[in-house]
Structure formats: structure tokens, C-alpha cells
Write a structure and sequence with these properties.
The longest helix has 17 residues, at 10-26. The model has no long low-confidence stretch (mean pLDDT 92). The protein is elongated and about 65 Å long. It has three helices and 14 strands. The strands form three sheets. It has an eight-stranded antiparallel sheet with strand order 9-5-6-7-11-3-2-13, with no helix packed on it. It folds into two domains: 8-44; 58-200. It is α+β, with helices and mostly antiparallel strands. One of its GO terms (biological process) is phospholipid biosynthetic process. It comes from Campylobacter concisus. Keywords: Cell membrane, Decarboxylase, Lipid biosynthesis, Lipid metabolism, Lyase, Membrane, Phospholipid biosynthesis, Phospholipid metabolism, Pyruvate, Transmembrane, Transmembrane helix, Zymogen. Pfam families: PS_Dcarbxylase. This is Phosphatidylserine decarboxylase-related protein.
Length: 205
């Protein structure tokens, strides 16, 4: 299943496969459990995604979703550009690197899985913050699990190539904290695919 199904889904698929086998053996609603199995396979699908461009300064989307917010914010006591991407329930949940970069820090905090519509969810839900360096360019990514996530999967990573897989998010939001001068090419409400173009970092001076 590697390359077609996200690793985070293996245990769930095995569980529903066993349920389907038992239901088929005893004739107890096998079509219902077969539908659940196919739904699980679809939820954890992991199609290949090629980077939109090989430009080293390109900023790629980390996940399938919709642009919820583009704003100027503060992060680590610095003014930054902020992009919030909301991942829909049936969107592909594989997390991908937004650029070639080294990982300088990964902080994961266990928490709840509240609905994203609740403002308190950003503080209480399970989340992770990953900090990156790309030469002199520093940026960060906050991943907040949503109500349909049962865990937040982040692989053991030290460096990443653009569009490389590094985790899985069942539902929730991905927030990018970027240098203030980043050129952003998308707008609020726009749907994006993982590895599609969000913008460009400014060239190092």
C-alpha cells in the first residue's frame, strides 16, 4: 500500500478489513462494513504530488485545503506573513514540505480534538510547531489537529526536500509563519493542493 495509502491509515484499514471479514463470514451487514472499509481507504489515500516548480525560492502548499486567512502577524517577537490553510474532511491529509529546508525544532503538544469553529480549539487541540531554516531564511509551521483527527502524525525529520512527505493530518489547520517580505500568490477562499504554488521567498541578500 506504500505510495497509495498514508502510513497513518494502516491500523484503521486493518481494523475495518477484519470487521468486514467477520461480517461477511457471519452474514451481518457485510455491505455496510465494506462501505466503511472503502471510506477509510479513500480518507487515507496518498496520491503522488510533484512540486509545481523546481524554483528554489518557491513556496509550496503543505496540504490540500482552502486558504482561510492571509495576514500580518507576530511570531517569535517578529512581524511575519501568516497563511492559514484549512484541511477539509475528504481532502488528502498527507503533509508535505513547502520548500527545501533544514528542520531546527519540532515541538508536539498532546491535546483535545475540538471543532475548529471553536476559538479555544487553537489552544486546547493537539498541535505541533516545526521551525525551519533555508539558508538565512527562517520560517515555521503550526499544525493543529481537528475534530476528525485521532492523532497528529509527524515523522522523524531533520531536513526536507520540497514536497517530501513528513506527516499526516486527518482534519484541522496548517498555519505558516513566513518572512514578512514573502510574495504570496494565492488569496483567501482559494482551494489549493499539496505541492501547488503559494508564493515565493525573497532572494537572500
Amino acid at each position: 500500500m506504500s505510495g497509495y495509502i498514508a502510513k497513518a491509515g494502516y491500523k484503521f484499514i486493518l481494523f475495518f478489513l477484519i470487521l468486514f471479514a467477520i461480517s461477511a463470514l457471519f452474514g451481518i451487514a457485510p455491505l455496510f462494513f465494506l462501505a466503511l472499509l472503502f471510506l477509510t481507504l479513500y480518507f487515507f489515500r496518498d496520491p503522488e504530488r510533484e512540486p509545481f516548480t523546481d524554483d528554489k525560492l518557491a513556496l509550496l502548499s503543505p496540504i490540500d485545503g482552502k486558504i482561510k486567512e492571509i495576514s500580518v502577524s507576530n511570531f517569535d517577537d517578529k512581524e511575519v506573513a501568516k497563511i492559514v490553510i484549512s484541511k477539509p474532511f475528504f481532502g488528502v491529509g498527507t503533509l508535505r514540505a513547502i520548500s527545501d529546508a533544514n528542520v531546527t525544532e519540532v515541538k508536539k503538544r498532546h491535546g483535545l480534538f475540538l471543532c475548529q469553529a471553536m476559538k479555544i480549539s487553537e489552544m486546547l487541540n493537539e498541535r505541533a510547531i516545526i521551525r525551519f531554516e533555508k539558508g538565512n531564511i527562517k520560517f515555521a509551521m503550526k499544525i493543529i489537529a481537528g475534530v476528525f483527527s485521532r492523532s497528529l502524525e509527524i515523522y522523524n525529520i531533520t531536513s526536507l526536500k520540497a514536497s517530501r512527505k513528513f506527516g499526516f493530518l486527518g482534519s484541522g489547520e496548517v498555519i505558516l509563519y513566513l518572512p514578512r517580505d514573502t510574495k504570496i500568490c494565492v488569496s483567501v477562499g482559494e482551494s489549493v493542493k499539496a505541492a501547488s504554488l503559494l508564493g515565493y521567498f525573497e532572494e537572500e541578500k
